[in-house]
Amino acid sequence: MPTLTIDGTEVTVEAGCTVLQACEEAGVEIPRFCYHDRLSIAGNCRMCLVEMEKAPKPIASCAMPVGEGMVIRTDTAAVRKARQGAMEFLLINHPLDCPICDQGGECDLQDQALAFGRDASRYVENKRAVKEKNLGPLIRTMMTRCIHCTRCVRFATEIAGVEELGATYRGEDTEIGTYVEAALTSEMSGNLVDVCPVGALTSRPYAFTARPWELRKTESIDVHDAVGCNIRVDSRGAEVMRVLPRLHEDVNEEWLGDRSRHAVDGLRRQRLDRPYLRVDGKLRPATWDQAFAAIASRMDGLAGERLAAIAGDMVDAETMLAMKDLMTALGSPNIDCRQDGAKLGGRHRGGYLFNTSIAGIEEADAILLVGCNPRWEATLINARIRKRWLAGGLSIGLIGPRVDLTYGYRYLGAGPATLAEVAGGDNDFAGLLQAAEKPMIIVGAGALSRPDGAAVLHLARRIAEATGMNGGDWNGFNVLHGAASRVGGLDLGFLPGEGGRDTAGILAGAGRGEIDLVWLLAADELDMGQFGDAFVVYQGHHGDAGAHRADVILPGAAYTEKDGTWVNTEGRAQQGRRATDPPGEARQDWAILRAFSDVIGQTLPYDNLAALRARMAELAPSFGRLDEVAPGEMGSFGVEGEVDATPFASPLGDYYLANAICRASSVMAECSRLYLAAGEGTGTDG
Amino acid sequence: MKGRQPDPAALAELRDILGEEGLRRDMLLEYLHALQDHHGHLSTRLLAALAQAMRLSQAEVYEVASFYHRFRIVGEAEAAPAGRRVDVCDGLVCQLAGADALAAALAADGGDGRIGRGACMGRCEQAPVAAADDSYIGQADPARIAAGLRGEIVEDRAPEVTFADYREGGGYDLLQQCRNGDHEPDWIIGRLSDSGLRGLGGAGFPTGRKWQLVRAEPAPRLLVVNADESEPGTFKDRYYLERDPHRFIEGMLLAAWTVAADEIYIYLRDEYPHLRRLLQRELVVARQAGIAVPEVHLRRGAGAYVCGEESAMLESIEGKRGLPRQRPPYPSQSGLFGRPTLINNVETLYWVRDAVNDGGDWPGQRSFSVSGRVREPGVKLAPAGISLRRLIDDYCGGMADGHQLAAFLPGGASGGILPAELADQPLDFGSLEDHGGLLGSAAVIVLSDRDDIRAAVANLMRFFADESCGQCTPCRLGTEKAVAMLAAGPADAAALADLAQVMADASICGLGHAAANPLRCALRHFPGAIA
Asked: pLDDT class for B112, splitting at 50, 70, 90?
């Protein structure tokens, strides 16, 4: 732990950190453009210069490792002069077009020019002009503004794992770009805009729509997958203008996938903004009273076992608990939160959680991926695996569809047969897991959402046991969920009760006339043709598959419009906050259920969110420990049995069209058309 | 959308040129050279095929190829260039010798070659110089260039001191003694330190100490020879390699033995193709005569002055763009491929045998590359600390006819420009700094009363702008801006001085630190010429 003196103050920092980090530790602000604490050090902008005793010239603090007894000065005339010089240089070719630049108001160059620059430039010659580049439908370029910090190149090659960005030519002819002028094929490309310190790369969908100071900023949680990325929702009036990542070291660090960031235009389209009733085969607008009355009248006299409810992939836990309580009150055991039919759930949380934790991936030394494509299903978990892989000494094996994951792996096989080999020790990857100190297995929906899913789960468990994945503080057994609602639903027991039907059973029962009324909580990823003559209530926010089949539509709130709790794949409960109001007559979902319960005389025992949340915490302690990950008990799970020979298939056909919000988004449609329909997948082209 | 897919024909052609063996990442520049040697240019279809064969992204291959000025990339839509290519040297010395007029005459004449310009070609004593493809032509005029295009001008010749001559004079005895156990590495280092031998590439770091530092690092270690001599006005390394290559080779082998480097890389500038062939030949000769030579990788530069900067050179040898690295770590700790690396200039190694043998008695003479307005330009071995006046009068036959000394560059483009009044100052490390000059590689360019100081400074600044790697802000923008300001007429002296100050203080590497020297010197010694 070296001690150094910064502007006369002694500070002790960890060995191996840089002078810039030490200055931050000492509370001294160092201006920088190229330095980014999650990217490799470039040291090219020369803005972070400081004086070091005995050094003949100012040093770049971002690239200088700390040493015992160093004496650093950041406040001398020479340092000010050097910074002013670097700043003046950067502005030599940077256009002064701030009034028409989307970076305005959140631009590092603008801020630092004010703080560290001169008041006027003495250089009057023409500025250089650089041709625009095509970086895909999400990024707008204005390369004349580029200051060559290379953050984007480093992000693309290091974090995103796509080596398509580069710096061509040299000297003042240097240009950043994709050499083949191809769109950047990464699901993390939106982050390029965040890392760009100037307005060279800005968000294309958000272009010229708002200024940062006009936006209301609401801290929330992403629900496009089960990672639980921390986000900030920027809204103006009733409209969500953009979504940005928020720092959470243990979850998404400071990154966000393109779907989570850029599907927001879907929040404005295809919205269910009033109740509807099917009359003579056609959906017609109705009042809340009419809609509730229609449901109540259909429900009247029905035995509990003739009712059913299925929760979709983005539903908050509050709504699921209200639904469960209502169904319990009505005597129905037919509820399920697994619309994909995953064979998961039960008392032992360890059997359905990502037990290692996302940050824990960085300690692993061997990973077996089973039936999952983390790049699509959990982009930020994939980024974490890549981060660990880049650090070296990690062996990765994959069983399932062969996909490009941005890191190297051994392809072991396509399906359960290979998994059984590993479980039986007949595959040398088993030996590798055995020899590893911190081995992991990650089982995805592609392996579990199939009729033999329970047997597959059992095999995975056997591998974990045989290779010593559970021991001491380490739990290497992991389920990778794709649905934000799933773990919350499992924690609350939104599962078939005694003698109850699961999703497949509900569909079959409806088809056979044994189920008369199905309540879909924003569940759209189902074969709607299987509901037969059943009366379908669709409560959700988008006019997607479920609404088209519905007999009654109850307009609810999308994730940005509600205060809700979601539990991520690690078992981490996090609360999202309402950024805007739901449109028109749409209402908060738990409140809709509470109101309906009143109509049918089964009043739910909570009048406000606090009471509902208290009950959630009572039922499942995870809800009482926000943002914490508790070890999942392992107990018994899975069922020993025959596995089918069918290869594991990816559950996600299209990263960009994964849910109702994405399917309403024209930005996502454009991405899908460009990246996937052209036959050039980002994750399935192996 | 991942970009063009290489066509099978291009992949087959690539295999024909590069062979069937597995391709290595660090050999990228060599492969690019092989493709260009074959076709006279680099086509984007072959670049795409190369990326595929090397499992690199196309962006990565293209960024490397486009960084180096010797590589000529021809896009899909462009027609492959016809005819041969003639480049006229753009260096200051050749400019003084009428290179601009020569290039204009060639362009006006048309002919069958394409006329271009190239950075200083390292043959300044023969100015003006031109290159017809890979043939270099001194005292170039249209007739000689035509002869060069017909292949009639060949630089290759046997060294003045052959292996047999060198051996007869006691050459390789010291190496054999070391290898026989007669000397310890520490003894060699001690003798070197006693001799006062310093790095002659320009930085002047004490050689013995450098070897000591590398030897103290854990094995495996590497030796890299910097033969990328490209400081304008410098041609001493070429001179010594052409005349007495085995003295250099023995020095190189002594260095490898002393620091126990198991492999040697020589990074030779691409403008010296005859030396490439010579070194290949002479290494075979030495081996055949029983001198054990560890594995020597002879690598070609590709037209990038910045690659003479040692860490940029390491990047280039690794097959990357020549961007200088941040220090620490220093190459002695983590150099080529992350291994402790000893880096020495050709001339430094050339003197090792004599320096070790003589120890404290070594005279420590300096090899001045003298060019410009003197009667007899060339490499002059003279006592360190000689004055310019004595160098010109005693070693160069005086000033050229009709020329009066007006200014001189003591150390190539980087060393700044000094007025005739300083002609009696000793030319040595440490004696010129007070006046803003640097001895550097001891490339002395002499200007006369008939030369335009402003045009000379503009030439030097344009050289740095062309050669800046573009990595760091001060150098990238400062060099370019200086060129623009000098071109625009009388300049704001205060703004230029600040520009120079920022470049010198804030750049990453020596190129940026030194690039402002001509400008700063001119502002100080010739203010009327600039502002």
From this structure: low
The pTM of the full predicted model, rounded to 2 decimals, is 0.93
Residue B390 placed within a domain: yes
Contact B502 A168 (CB under 8 A): no
DSSP state of A475: E
* CA-based torsion, B17, B20, B21, B22: positive or negative: positive
Does B155 fall in a domain? no
Q: Which whole number is the average pLDDT over A178-182?
A: 69
Residue recorded with tokens 């603008």? A110
Q: Looking at the complex, report in whole angstroms how far the Cα of residue A163 sits from the nearest Cα belonging to chain B.
A: 6
Distance from CA of A244 to the nearest CA of B (A): 27
Residues B371 and B245 in one domain: no
Q: At A34, is the pLDDT very low, low, confident or very high (cuts 50, 70, 90)?
A: very high
Judge contact between B115 and B103, C-beta under 8 A: yes
Give tens-digit pLDDT for B52-100: 999 998 899 999 999 999 999 998 778 877 778 899 999 999 999 999 9
B284 and B169 within one domain: yes
- Cβ <8 Å between A90 and B473: yes
Confidence of residue A122 (pLDDT cuts 50, 70, 90): confident
The C-alpha atoms of residue A589 and residue A435 are separated, in whole angstroms, by: 50
Cβ atoms of B444 and B410 within 8 Å: the answer is yes
Contact A125 B488 (CB under 8 A): yes
Whether B237 and B300 map to the same domain: the answer is yes
Do residues B15 and B58 share a domain?
yes
List of chain A residues whose C-beta atoms are within 8 Å of the C-beta of residue B485: 123, 125
d(CA B300, nearest CA chain A) in Å: 19
Strands (E), A505-624: 517-521, 535-540, 552-555, 564-567, 573-576
- Given B4, B326, B468, which is nearest A63 (Cβ)? B326
- Among A41, A44, A151, A682, most B C-beta atoms within 10 A, so best to mutate, is A44
Same domain? For B187 and B273 the reply is yes
Contact (CB<8Å) B57/A169: no
pLDDT of residue B491: 83
* B495 contacts A171? CB cut-off 8 A: no
pLDDT tens digit sequence for B342-362: 999 999 999 999 999 999 999
Question: Distance, in angstroms, between B348 CA and closest chain A CA?
Answer: 26
Considering the domain boundaries, does residue B335 fall inside one? yes
Give the nearest partner residue to B481 out of A60, A92, A171, using CB atoms: A92
Residue B37 belongs to domain with CATH number: 1.10.10.1590
Question: Over pLDDT 90: what percentage of chain A?
Answer: 87
Contact A242, A232 (CB under 8 A): no
Please give the C-alpha separations between residue A568 and each of A226, A257, A357, in angstroms, as whole numbers: 5, 16, 10
Predicted local confidence at residue B85, as pLDDT = 86
In angstroms, the separation between the Cα of residue B243 and the nearest Cα of chain A is 35
The domain of B510 spans 452-531
Which residue from A63, A166, A678 is facing B60, i.e. has the nearest CB?
A: A166
A&B contacts, CB < 8 Å: 149
Spell out which residues of chain B touch residue A148, defining contact as CB-CB under 8 Å.
470-471, 473, 476
Name the minimum distance, in Å, from the CA of A164 to any CA of chain B. 5
Could you tell me which chain B residue has the CA closest to the CA of A180?
A: B3
Question: Residue A133 and residue A136: Cα distance in Å, rounded?
Answer: 9
Residue A398 and residue A409 in contact, taking contact as beta carbons nearer than 8 Å: yes
Q: Which of A40, A130, A180 to mutate to test the interface with B (most CBs of B within 10 A)?
A: A180
Confidence of residue A683 (pLDDT cuts 50, 70, 90): very low
Q: Where are the alpha helices (DSSP H) in B416-506?
A: 453-467, 473-487, 493-506
Kindly state whether residue B80 falls inside one of the protein's structural domains.
Answer: no
Confidence band (pLDDT; 50, 70, 90) for A462? very high
User: Per-residue pLDDT for A543 more than 80?
Assistant: yes
